[in-house]
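Page header: ASSEMBLY MODEL / three components / 276 residues total.
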Amino acid sequence: MASDLNRLVAGKTIEDVKVSFWPIVATDHDSFIKHLIGQKVRSVTRLGKWVKFNFRSESSLLAHLKMTGQFISGPWPSDEFPNKFSDASSAWPPHARAAFLFSDGKRKEAIFYSDVRKFGRLRLFDKSSVDGFLKSLKLGPDALTISRQDFHNRIVGSKKPIKQVLLDQTVLAGLGNIYADESLFAAGLSPHRKARELAEQESGRLLVEIKRILIEAIENRGSTVDNYQSLEGPGSYQSSHQVYGKGGRLCPKCSGALVRTIIGGRSSVHCPNCQS
DNA sequence: CCGGTCACCTGAGTGC
DNA sequence: TGCACTCAGGTGACCG
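Prediction written out in full:
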């Protein structure tokens, strides 16, 4: 989480950078490490699903974690940074693709970028290019802070199924497939409903659930930043899923069968009885 | 401009 | 038990 990262590294300077899988570095390939070393962190912020390291030099590092990326904190291991992570005895976190050593002059703190599936990307920008890039993403308002009215107005501008609209980051930033399904289930709305047909009362109910579920997920998972030595498998948020990944199983509300369909190319699970 | 499909990547899950 | 196979996720590229 960006606020955890901010607490950990704001005011600190990058002393060392390691990369074990270069395709994650989407920009400035050759000078990536050289440019980062010596950078002092002003803050770490979040924009939708992007994490942004703001440096005092006005350059910045953007990270998109996709599904399996995470930042992990811990001590900087003394053994050599491995190029492959088949060695379970390594002191480096599993699947660490990049590592950053921070220092405030007294203490050192390491942040590891870990990503099992290697889909995540790290992009380095100078002062002049970051705003243009962010603008090109056309991110909508953040799901956690958007108002009911703004949400409703944006939703009803689309004739697509509500499920598909929720995943459109230019409409609403920060919601992924899992939480879209969970939010629709909690709000009792079918993912197939045309977005433009939602009444204000319905979109309001949906937004309440979106925010509640996102906050809950952040709190329960909470461990995107954690001491990797205490990381034990996936966060507990998975156990709270009501419908995601449970196609064919029983609805937790009515015990009817949950149905899996494809909407906008994405897997969707819902209860035809509870969601309409 | 729009919607649809694929690639990217690996581990978990399934079926035999 | 073990192997082959499918599937999942977010996004950008590509195509009709």
